[in-house]
Structure formats: structure tokens, C-alpha cells
Write a structure and sequence with these properties.
Blueprint lengths: L6 H19 L3 H9 L23 H13 L4 H12 L14 H35 L3 H19 L2
Helix pairs in contact: 2-3
């Protein structure tokens, strides 16, 4: 026997799906701390991610990790925290540029250069093909090519004789 799903069941299923999606998006402070800590670089000059700086006695990582905990505790958004660190330590503290404003150039420029280089290469190959096809057509037919080849061979023989 086939049972039809009632509208009440549809609403219950939709509520469960909505609740599941909301719970997936909920992040505790430790995962937020880990995510933000991996978006910043240690400023000691090691070139490592802040939470992965493994220098014994690093003068900067402990202080920066404490500041990150303090900023997360104050309730600031991720963007505000990253901007605070960028204002204090400079834009090099960010592992990747924040999207927005002039920083979009860092995301768009490599792709634009790649696309322009690909299009330019295709255009250059097209021009080369047209030139080589034009030379073959202007040379005439196969008989003219044979005559030209014979003339070139004769000239080479004359010039290479002792």
C-alpha cells in the first residue's frame, strides 16, 4: 500500500534540513581560531603560517596567538580581525590578500595574464599559418616548386665547388 506524504511531514522534513544546514554553519571558537590562525603568517621572518611556526622560543608567535585569542574573544568578525592584524603588522601578515578593493588585482591579474598570453599565442600561430599558406600559394603549383628546388640545388652545387 502506497502512503502519501502529508504536508505536515514535508514541513517537518524541511525544518530538519534547515536545522542541519544551520548546525553545519555553526562554528565554535576553536575552529574559528584555527581557520583565522591559518590565514595569517608569523612575522618573525620564518615564512610559516602563524599556528604552524615551529621555532623554539619564537619571539612573535606566542604574542600573536594571544592577540588572536583576544580578538576572537572580543567578538569581532573575521574580516575585522584580519584587518586589525594587517593594520598592526602590515599586509604581509596575511597569508592571502583579503578580497576587496585593490587586493582584487592579486587575484585577477594572474588569470588575466594567462588568458591574454594564451590568446596572443593563438593569434601568433594563426598569423604564422596564414603566412606559410600564402607562400605556398604564391609559389605556384607543384611544377613551379620542382623548378625552384632544381634551381636552388644547382646554385648550391656551384657555390660549394672548389
Amino acid at each position: 500500500m502506497l502512503r502519501l506524504i502529508t504536508p505536515r511531514r514535508w514541513w517537518q522534513g524541511a525544518a530538519i534540513c534547515l536545522l542541519a544546514v544551520m548546525m553545519l554553519g555553526a562554528a565554535d571558537s576553536s575552529s574559528r581560531f584555527g581557520r583565522l590562525g591559518h590565514e595569517m603568517m608569523c612575522v618573525c621572518g620564518c615564512g610559516q603560517i602563524l599556528l604552524e611556526c615551529n621555532h623554539v622560543g619564537c619571539p612573535d608567535s606566542d604574542r600573536m596567538i594571544g592577540e588572536l585569542r583576544q580578538q576572537i574573544g572580543s567578538g569581532g568578525t573575521d574580516t575585522l580581525i584580519l584587518n586589525w592584524f594587517a593594520a598592526k603588522y602590515g599586509p604581509t601578515v596575511l597569508a592571502a590578500p583579503i578580497r576587496g578593493g585593490f587586493d582584487n588585482v592579486a587575484w585577477i591579474a594572474p588569470m588575466a595574464v594567462f588568458l591574454l598570453a594564451t590568446a596572443g599565442t593563438g593569434f601568433l600561430i594563426t598569423i604564422w599559418r596564414k603566412r606559410s599558406a600564402g607562400r605556398l600559394v604564391s609559389a605556384g603549383g607543384p611544377d613551379d616548386l620542382k623548378a625552384t628546388d632544381d634551381a636552388v640545388r644547382a646554385r648550391i652545387r656551384r657555390e660549394t665547388e672548389y
